[in-house]
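Task: sequence design from structure.
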């Protein structure tokens, strides 16, 4: 009887502690986006347009494919994709958990093991690249940002460093994409509940000097606060 009571007591403490952890995590994820960094306005000329796009959970940078600073089709060759050519004028770039990217094309495909591995950093990471014919439509799920050349250079360097490289080339992952215009590459870094895909996007914005929340684990922390 004493063993049973002790087990119940420890189980109760574990559940209580876990519930407290979840509560603190959710509270921090709601409050910290209101605490912004890079609050000084950009003083150089902002003449380049990029986009931040959200699917409701995950955020991407959406960039012009060809631009006088960089041509992304040299980094992401058309041959890595099933149906991409020079008529695609924009490309979206996102970082995330490799297992989630490859094994969860739709939410109905999400497995508990995939979610657990992602939350606790037990999987590797990948970059998800998608070509688009046209620029995304601005709205609640898509924000246009006007940036300077210097800011764009910093974003390019940030993106380059997010990939794994081998012999001067990206490491393409031989796995079907979600459609005929996307594919995956090996990435650097570990994904976990404190460094999510949206934290990666937020860090890229910080690196450019864009005003954004100090910690952005969920997409709302970016889409609702960016630049404000």
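Answer:
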């Amino acid at each position: 009887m004493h063993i049973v009571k002790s087990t119940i007591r420890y189980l109760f403490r574990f559940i209580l502690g876990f519930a407290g952890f979840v509560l603190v995590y959710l509270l921090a994820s709601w409050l910290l986006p209101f605490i912004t960094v890079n609050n000084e306005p950009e003083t150089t000329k902002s003449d380049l347009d990029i986009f931040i796009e959200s699917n409701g959970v995950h955020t991407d940078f959406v960039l012009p494919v060809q631009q006088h600073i960089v041509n992304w089709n040299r980094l992401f060759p058309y041959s890595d994709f099933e149906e991409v050519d020079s008529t695609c004028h924009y490309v979206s770039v996102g970082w995330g958990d490799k297992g989630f990217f490859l094994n969860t094309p739709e939410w109905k495909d999400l497995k508990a093991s995939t979610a657990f591995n992602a939350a606790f950093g037990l999987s590797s990471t990948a970059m998800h690249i998608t070509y688009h014919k046209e620029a995304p439509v601005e709205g609640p799920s898509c924000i246009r940002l006007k940036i300077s050349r210097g800011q764009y250079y910093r974003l390019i360097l940030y993106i380059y460093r997010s990939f794994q490289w081998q012999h001067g080339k990206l490491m393409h992952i031989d796995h079907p994409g979600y459609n005929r215009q996307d594919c995956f590459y090996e990435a650097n870094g570990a994904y976990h509940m404190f460094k999510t895909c949206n934290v990666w996007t937020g860090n890229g914005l910080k690196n450019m000097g864009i005003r954004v929340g100090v910690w952005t684990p969920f997409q709302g922390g970016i889409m609702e606060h960016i630049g404000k």
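Residues 48 and 149 are 7 Å apart (CA to CA).
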